[in-house]
Amino acid sequence: MKIAFTADEPRDLDSVISYHFGHAPYFVLVEIVDGNVIKKVESIENPYPGEHNPGELPAFIHTIGADIIVTGGMGPRAQEFFKQYGIKPVVGAYGKVKDVLKEMLKGDYHYNEAPHEHHHEGHGPHSEGENEEIRRLKLEVQDLRKQIAELKSMILEIKEQLGKS
């Protein structure tokens, strides 16, 4: 089984999952064998960064052989494209790839496959100040996602340590 995770950075299992699959700069590919053994992990660049042509990314993910795509958010149309290729979309994921992968392999995750609404940005007239504010807020959100990913990792490590006691 091959799982593709959207990622904000090319740090393999330590990458933070990107909020929206279409805008993710990277994908982390994880190949699983024998039920839960990690055979291979690699980070690859999104070949269509910033583009939003319906069906391109699902076709790309299909060509690399992924069975599952995991991301923070994805619109219903994109989910349908993935399903047509036999790829299971999992949305609502957050944190580091390694933590979400661990949850998935244990069957202990609560992400959903339901259509996830999202709004397109950049439509309509905006003033220069509004654009700068949006850019600043996006950077703050990206930083907060990294902080949340770190906290989630720490919580999972503490839970594991408590379980070993």
In short:
The protein has 165 residues and is an alpha/beta fold. It contains four helices and five strands; from the N terminus they run βββαβαβαα.
Distance between the termini: 33 Å
Beta-strand content:
15-25%
CATH secondary-structure class:
Alpha Beta
Low-confidence stretches: 114-126
Count helical runs.
4
- Overall number of strands: 5
Helix content: 25-40%
Q: Which structural class is indicated by helix and strand composition?
A: alpha/beta
The global form is globular
| H/E topology pattern | EEEHEHEHH
Average of the residue pLDDT scores: 86
The largest beta-sheet arranges its strands as: 3-2-1-4-5
Tell me the domain tally: 1
The CATH level-2 architecture is identified as 2-Layer Sandwich
Q: What value does the Rg take, in angstroms?
A: 16 Å
CATH topology, which one? Nucleotidyltransferase, domain 5
Query: The biggest beta sheet, please?
Result: 5 strands, mixed
Determine the CATH superfamily. Dinitrogenase iron-molybdenum cofactor biosynthesis domain
Walk me through what this model shows.
This protein is an alpha/beta fold and 165 residues long. The protein has one domain: Dinitrogenase iron-molybdenum cofactor biosynthesis domain (Nucleotidyltransferase, domain 5, 2-Layer Sandwich), CATH 3.30.420.130. It contains 4 helices and 5 strands, in the order E-E-E-H-E-H-E-H-H. The termini are far apart.
